[in-house]
Specification:
The chain is mainly alpha-helical. It contains 20 helices and 2 strands. The chain is extended.
């Protein structure tokens, strides 16, 4: 076999070329710029590589993997460190405790159920279990499921959802066991999942008439909770509660197609607030685009409007913009 002296960059280049262009490109996309430059330069200058050299490098690569003695153990803490080192701060922040992982597992399991099946199953469960499950559903799924339940169970469910705080790991495991038939492992951790924020998302996702009826019943049962909900519920019309600067920040992140669709049927106050915070040229082009839109389903327009409202709430939660409360007055 040919004896050659190769640098680490040249060995890496040979291994990547051996794996094929598609796999090599995927691996290089995960490398930092300095590593990419070194390997790319080595790859470009390799020229023809004899088969025995390729086998030598591949054998060394396999030997290094085979001789790697430490056991591979995946943990939330380790995953978080890797993501932080990769600069993926948002994803790293999402890696939490075992209770959080159990919560995510339950959410994934529930996402595979239809709203009809979910509503049917929940009607046989205790109200507290019902609230925990709804807290783990996507707003649209939870809203539709609640709308399919008896009226007395609806109000009980949403009230418990709003009042719910931390849920212990045992409860999360027990509910998951019911759905997936797995044995829970008792731990003393807890994970915050419910509360007013979840209920606001649920109400926003429900048909307007159903949401208004529930709000009326909540107000009769718990006026303080109803007042809090009204303060936090945010719709497309509430975009007028953004300052000009915050509206401009929001518009910079809104997909153009969603903005055009949302403006197809919008209140004058919201439309004027949006157009006023665009340049004169951009506003004119947008008006022309909106006017040229074909007939569109109302539900698609409403979905686009909700997309803008959801984005505003998300950016507010991240501290990028501020949503003025309805009773605040600025002069």
């Amino acid at each position: 076999m040919t004896k050659v002296k190769l640098s680490n960059a040249e060995k890496a280049a040979i291994v990547l070329l051996s794996l094929g262009e598609e796999v090599a490109s995927q691996i290089m996309s995960q490398m930092n710029p300095a590593e990419v430059n070194r390997v790319a330069m080595a790859m470009s200058s390799l020229g023809r590589v004899e088969n025995d050299v390729v086998q030598l490098v591949a054998g060394e690569f396999y030997s290094n993997l085979s001789n790697h003695k430490p056991l591979l153990t995946g943990t939330p803490a380790g995953t978080k460190r890797i993501l932080q080192m990769a600069g993926r701060v948002t994803e790293a922040d999402a890696i939490e405790s075992e209770a959080a992982l159990a919560s995510h597992e339950l959410s994934d399991l529930l996402s595979q159920m239809t709203a009809e099946a979910l509503a049917k199953w929940l009607q046989t469960e205790a109200p507290q279990t019902l609230a925990v499950v709804l807290a783990h559903c996507a707003p649209a799924q939870a809203g539709k499921s609640v709308s399919l339940m008896p009226a007395n169970l609806q109000i009980e469910a949403v009230h418990r959802l709003a009042k719910m705080g931390d849920v212990d790991l045992n409860s999360l495991k027990a509910i998951t066991e019911t759905l997936k038939e797995i044995r829970s492992r008792p731990h003393g951790e807890a994970h915050a999942i419910g509360g007013v924020t979840k209920l606001v998302g649920l109400l926003n996702a429900m048909p307007q008439a159903e949401a208004e009826r529930l709000m009326s019943e909540i107000e009769g049962r718990d006026p303080a909770l109803a007042a809090t909900l009204k303060q936090q519920m945010f719709t497309f019309s509430d975009l007028t509660r953004l300052s000009d600067r915050d509206m401009q920040t929001l518009l910079a992140q809104v997909p153009a197609a969603a903005l055009r669709l949302a403006l197809k049927q919008a209140d004058d106050a919201v439309s004027q607030h949006i157009y006023r915070n665009l340049s004169e040229r951009a506003a004119k082009l947008l008006r022309d685009d909106v006017a040229a839109l074909p007939k569109t389903r109302l539900q698609d327009v409403q979905a686009a409007q909700q997309q803008l409202a959801d984005l505003a709430q998300q950016m507010a939660a991240q501290g990028k913009i501020t949503i003025m409360s309805k009773d605040e007055v600025y002069v």
